[in-house]
User: Which sequence fits this backbone?
């Protein structure tokens, strides 16, 4: 799919999606793109909400759910992912870097631990962006949905419900939801919380780049040693697409 094709009818589609509920936005994408539709998940603190919504769609269990496993996730995330996969009958597709963690550290060092933004960007490219792009290509995905929300980071305030991201469309069904919306949805649907939620984490990624909320930092500001808020999974190539992106 070319960048031009991605933008066909974009404004009209956004207009159609804006008034819809998150569930209806998912249904729209499933109907529009069929086998070219997928979800991404991090199995993070709030991941159960969108995954549960998918499970309620007719044939939702046929939609691939791509999980980028960096090899550095907390053990609690691996267990939580297994729990949700079984509970919600998820068609899980695990995306991993072609370079093992041990090989990466041997060749490049502990890229997350240098305090240098360039090293952190390289880490995210190797362990997150490239594996996701490869999985999207292999599955021939035209549109993918994620659970990002506008209030999570500075970048996400500029998001719309449907944006082009690296030659594909990115759907954000939960974009306008609040923390309270998330909490009550999980409570109403009896969804299990991530184990680290009880330890004060409001967001969690890799074990070395996540921390519980504290007096000085909270939310996405606890991630990546304070160097950045976004991992880059959804960030477009701005020179090509000219749009600000988001990350999980």
Assistant:
């Amino acid at each position: 799919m070319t960048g031009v094709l991605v933008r066909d009818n974009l404004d009209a589609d956004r207009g159609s999606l804006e008034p819809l509920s998150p569930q209806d936005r998912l249904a729209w994408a499933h109907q529009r793109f069929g086998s070219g539709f997928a979800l991404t998940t991090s199995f993070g603190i709030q991941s159960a909400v969108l995954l549960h919504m998918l499970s309620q769609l007719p044939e939702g269990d046929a939609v691939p759910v791509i999980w980028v496993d960096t090899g550095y996730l907390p053990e609690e995330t691996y267990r939580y992912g297994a729990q949700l996969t079984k509970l919600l009958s998820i068609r899980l597709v695990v995306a991993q870097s072609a370079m093992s963690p041990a090989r990466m550290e041997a060749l490049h060092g502990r890229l997350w631990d240098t305090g240098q933004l360039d090293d952190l960007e390289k880490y995210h490219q190797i362990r997150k962006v490239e594996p996701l792009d490869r999985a999207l290509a292999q599955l021939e995905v035209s549109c993918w949905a994620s659970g990002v929300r506008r209030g999570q980071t500075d970048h996400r305030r500029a998001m719309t419900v449907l944006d082009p991201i690296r030659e594909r469309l990115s759907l954000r069904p939960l974009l306008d939801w609040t923390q309270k919306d998330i909490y009550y949805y999980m409570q109403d649907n009896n969804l299990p919380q991530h184990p680290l939620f009880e330890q004060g984490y409001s967001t969690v990624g890799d074990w070395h780049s996540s921390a519980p909320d504290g007096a000085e930092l909270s939310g996405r500001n606890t991630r990546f040693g304070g160097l950045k808020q976004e991992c880059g999974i959804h960030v477009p190539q701005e020179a090509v697409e000219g749009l600000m992106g988001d990350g999980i």
